[in-house]
Design goal:
This protein is of the alpha+beta class. It has four helices and five strands.
Length: 126
């Protein structure tokens, strides 16, 4: 399990997940995973079959996932439709309950807004 901001960089499962990706996408993925993993109360697990890192909270259950693809990285919020602070940042209006933030290499990671969304997502069910 990933439990700190440092673990994703050294996890062999995580290394295998990002190994086939172009270096800029792998770096962006590592930065985003480290940011989410550092949020209080979240623990992450590499899901090789899904090509993602899924994050859970003891009280709120599955909160979000980071999906790495060849050209982008997505932060998917399981109950993103319910998040009040996702307007203008999260996409996926056609999805039943989830919403996502899509980033490409060179994008600034909206650290503060992601922190707010993580806290809000946890508070929904904790």
């Amino acid at each position: 399990m990933l439990t700190s901001a440092v673990d994703p960089v050294y996890s062999s499962d995580f290394a295998a997940l990002i190994a086939p990706l172009p270096a800029p996408v792998a770096e962006l993925t590592a930065r985003l995973v480290a940011l989410v993993a550092a949020h209080p109360g979240l623990s992450g697990k590499v899901m090789s079959g899904w090509r993602s890192v899924n994050f859970r909270h003891a009280g709120a259950g599955h909160v979000c996932s980071v999906f790495a693809q060849a050209d982008r990285v997505s932060l998917y919020f399981e109950h993103g439709r319910l998040l009040a602070h996702g307007d203008g940042l999260l996409a996926g209006d056609g999805l039943k309950k989830g919403r996502y933030l899509r980033l490409v290499p060179g994008d600034d990671i909206p650290v503060d807004r992601i922190g707010i969304l993580l806290s809000e997502a946890i508070a929904l069910f904790a």
